[in-house]
């Protein structure tokens, strides 16, 4: 398994002989306004794509966790080959089909693509009224013979649903959205550095990849913030915080 962080939550994954695009956001830097009720007025995305768009337009499989603009945007809907298989959470399929995609499959609990098993997980996109307002979100666990189990936690805070997924699947690799996104009031709506620390202590067996950082204006936890905390707690070796465009190779994490 190889994973490339593109930007924010967008990943390009080579897995079991297939290419997988996760949560594509292809908008040009600064095209979109700041997130409403955030603490600064920087336009989104904050940074450009690190690779040419043509390299991302023809995946075998697309995984969409939910339809917020920083996970699925008009630029992605336009650029991606309409014949790609697209897996999503129930309720999002009509929007994806309306964009012209012919191979959309909502995942109730589990599904399969070729020899890849796909399990949908849940989470909490914030707390209280804000969490309700943010709506349903999903994560996915990928499994295939000869590959590490990969848990894509999605837009969630540290919560019972994440604990359940970790306990059920015991993935070798876990990708978390760790930018601590938040509004002017209320708690974070995705993991912050303290959430990642709790996950690392809870699941010492998994290697953590932290993404969804430094690309959207209300994500306030930086790579440096997270790295310093984890290192101070002696957990730096369990965590990787990739730069945009960086490749990570996890073949050595394969189960015996």
Structure, briefly:
By secondary structure, the chain is of the alpha/beta class.
Description:
With 256 residues, the protein is an alpha/beta fold. It has one domain: Ribonuclease Z/Hydroxyacylglutathione hydrolase-like (Metallo-beta-lactamase, Chain A). 19% of the residues lie in helices and 25% in strands. It contains six helices and 14 strands. It has helices at 74-79, 93-98, 128-134, 160-169, 193-202, 223-232; strands at 2-7, 10-15, 18-22, 61-63, 85-88, 103-106, 110-113, 116-122, 138-143, 150-152, 173-177, 207-211, 239-240, 247-249. It has a seven-stranded mixed β-sheet. It has a seven-stranded mixed β-sheet with strand order 7-8-9-10-11-12-13, with helices on one face. Helix 5 packs across helix 6 (223-232). The two termini are 15 Å apart.
